Amino acid sequence: MIVTTGGRYNEHSLQKAKDIAIRYKLDFVMRKKRSVKELRERYNDDVLVVGRDGISITPLTGNDSVKYHPNFSMVRAKRLLKNEHDALVEAAELTAGMSFLDCTMGLGADSVIASLTVGNSGRVTALEDSLILYLLTKEGLSSYDTNIGVISDAMKNVEVLHEDHETYLKTLADNSFDIVYFDPMFEEKISNSESLRAISAVTQSKTLSETAINEAKRVAAKKVVLKDHFRSRRFEQFGFIQQIRKTSKVHYGVINTETEVDS
Length: 263
Hints:
The chain is of the alpha/beta class.
């Protein structure tokens, strides 16, 4: 991956681009009025663009750029601040002070909701195997200004790691997190969103494995939670209790590890 600036840049965005290149050990390239397509073809690599309004990445494969934005997580976060319900919070029974491991971060929406719920006394760690999504989300969470302090703080409090979840889970001790969470790519399409299509193009296609679920059950002190399409076979396959949501195509499944330990 190479790093460059937007077509029109200022000293701040230029320095930020150089800083990102240094921190992630990537090559910085001056834009020199070249298009992203020209740079991608010239260097045969993904192109990270630092603009004055944020960063985006155009993968080598595909024509759509991916840009960080909190999207629907902002709506959900504002609802939480009004003491309204959130399906993930209810499925995981998240409360202040708990620890939450998001094994499939993507753009981090669920991690932000978890972080807002567990607060400063809790802990949220998010894993992402795709370098593009990891870099984009890590930078986005640390710098995006929501104009709502408590939400911006929740975003910054998420610990983001570039890790394969199955490999990472094997390194953890028993009961390391209260909640272990999976939100894998759905097997069935439920959205025509251009942003989701762009994300799916750079998301790791590794399927959820029995090994990962078994490791998650060992690591989770309270629950393993799965978010999936309501028709997904994975709920039954891995022993999740599917929580039916009649008005949504997205369902949550829960394995209660406290019960398993007590029995």
